Amino acid sequence: MARLDYRHKTFIKIWLVAIIIVLSLFVFTACNNNSGTYDLSNVQNVDEITSSASSSLTGFIRKALIGLNDKVGNFGWTVVVFTIILRLILSPLDIWQKIVARRNAKAMKRMKPQLEALQAKYGEDKQRLQMEQQQLYKKEHYSMLGACLPTILTLVVFFLVFAGFRDMVGYQYARDYQACRDVYNEEYNATLKEQYDAESVAYSIQEDGIVVANAGQDLNKIAKAADYAVIQGQNAVADYYNSKEARAMRGWIYVGSADRYLINNIFVQDGWKTAVPDYTSITGQSGFATARVVGFTADEYNTIMAKVIGTGGWGKNGKWNGLLLLPILSIVVGFLSQFLTQKSQGQPPAQTAGSNQGTMKMMQYFMPIMIGVFALLYSGAFTIYMFVSSLMAITFQLAFNGIGYLVDLKRGEAAPISFKSKKE
Fold first, then answer.
1. Is residue 98 part of a domain?
2. How far is CA 14 from CA 146, 358, 385, in A?
3. Whose CA is closest to 18, among 134, 150, 160?
């Protein structure tokens, strides 16, 4: 860091603090298994499902998404609408950051000759050089913290929203499984009752609706009836889970020619994961920051979901939930957003540009790489959020640059764009 000027040293210190905050938030939101747990052990119907999420804000985000989905009807498009609303709410932060960055760019343009002169004069005396640079930045009102603070606040919001989506995914996992369990139990008990009646097996019905054969009956008949009831229950679950309405709620962007969705289940990652979560995923034992659903055994889950696990996706035997399109697009759009942001900032003097290039590239790559990790490993719903958010950031940056150019043009600070060739 010895070859970096005062400006870039300060930027790096601010970003290091930001990264520490981000990592702390990541540990809190992604690795806290006590938050966002759904216990189905005593749940009788889907309306009784509640979360143990300790943060009221994450619960608010989950409720906002669910309430918005009641109006939209598809969770994928609900996420798009939610993202647009959130970006509009946070737009004052964006405007503040862009105004500061624009002011800094103009200040850097004014300071360039002076910074180069200071570099030439005090290049051997690093301490004196940094002191002179600091005084010049203060004189020209160059704000390093002002340019970084909105980004840090945006990162904080990013992880709070991440926690909210995590809670929502857990809620939907719990809701889907409880609904399937209700369908299975209803069909199983109805079929078992029919089979017992047909085979003249005496039985009783408990308060919770479960059919129980009386003692001293033919065990072969009981086993045969139970096996048949299991199959019928599984068929009923398959019909419910794969119904047009259920698929339309979970999927995003219908591909009619393949009778699939771009993402078949947005509550699962857009990639190689199966469209229907397995037991370890739904209980939070595997996967990336998956909310936990508890209160049932692996045998129970695998029996009820037997005919839907590993179905309804892309690739061989339909085991891929998505085609990795959104993670790839999210990374590309993230780099494009960072590139536009970097271009809008002032360039350092020529003497320090070479030594700072590697460090600044590292900072420039941080957000797109982080977005790529989340897009590859977390739910399709959150990937949609990141993609739409980055797309809006690019649109806003281009609009801001255009407005800024017109303002500069009116003030005589920018040259008009010419579409004539140099030869003309």
1. yes
2. 11, 17, 26
3. 150
CA gap 25, 95 in Å, rounded: 25
* Strand 211-213 relative to strand 203-205, pairing: antiparallel
Domain for residue 135, yes or no?
A: yes
On whether residue 366 sits in a domain, the answer given is yes
More confident residue, 152 or 345: 152
pLDDT of 86: 93
The per-residue DSSP string of 109-176 comes to HHHHHHHHHHHHHHTT-HHHHHHHHHHHHHHTT--HHHHHHHHHHHHHHHHHHHHHHHHHHHHHHHHH
Residue reference for tokens 């798009």: 80
For the stretch 217-266, pLDDT in tens is 889 999 999 999 999 999 999 999 999 999 999 999 999 888 889 999 99
pLDDT of residue 7: 56
Q: Do residues 212 and 75 lie in contact, with contact meaning Cβ atoms separated by under 8 Å?
A: no
User: What pLDDT score does 355 carry?
Assistant: 44
Q: Is 178 helix (H, G, I), strand (E, B) or coil?
A: helix
Sole residue written with tokens 């800094």 = 104
Query: What is the domain count for the chain?
Result: 1
C-alpha to C-alpha distance for 382 and 134, rounded to whole angstroms: 41
Average pLDDT of the chain to the nearest whole number: 80
Q: Domain range spanning residue 123?
A: 6-31+73-142+329-410
Distances (CA, A) of 172 to 26, 34, 175, 195, 241: 22, 18, 5, 34, 13
Evaluate whether residue 220 is within a structural domain: no
CA distances 316 to 279, 311, 418, Å, are 21, 10, 54
